[in-house]
Specification:
Blueprint (H helix, E strand, L loop, with lengths): L2 H25 L5 H17 L7 H19 L3 H46 L1
Length: 125
């Protein structure tokens, strides 16, 4: 499999997981703060595993801080605050995943343009 196909596959996976995590967070009724925290932690971990995680360092730090605050709110019995913070953390992590996917697509487009230019040069000679 060439580099283009690998990057395309990674970008599709990132977009799919981002959508899946958001849908799973919205579908849970009633909302369980501990499950939302778990979903957010999984989304953060997924972003951190990406080779492009350095692009979203700030977003991941925000998400991690909100997860910690949500856990504290759970411990203090403040369910509504915990839910809000966990949803915010999940949103930040989903944004990070989307940003990674966008970077991959941008790189793929640039590579395609370069390849097209090379072919045009070859066939114009």
């Amino acid at each position: 499999m060439n580099e283009f196909a690998i990057k395309l596959k990674q970008a599709k996976k990132a977009g799919f997981y981002c959508l899946l995590l958001l849908l799973s967070a919205c579908a849970s009724t009633p909302k369980q703060p501990d499950l939302l925290v778990e979903n957010a932690e999984q989304a953060i971990a997924k972003s951190k595993r990406s080779p492009l995680s350095n692009l979203v360092k700030e977003e991941l730090e925000k998400a991690e801080k909100k997860v910690l605050n949500a856990k504290q709110a759970i411990d203090m019995g403040n369910k509504n605050e915990a839910i809000w913070l966990a949803e915010q953390a999940l949103s930040d992590a989903a944004y990070a995943n989307a940003k990674i996917a966008a970077a991959v697509y941008k790189d793929l487009a640039r590579n395609q343009e370069e390849t097209l230019k090379k072919y045009q040069e070859i066939y114009q000679k």
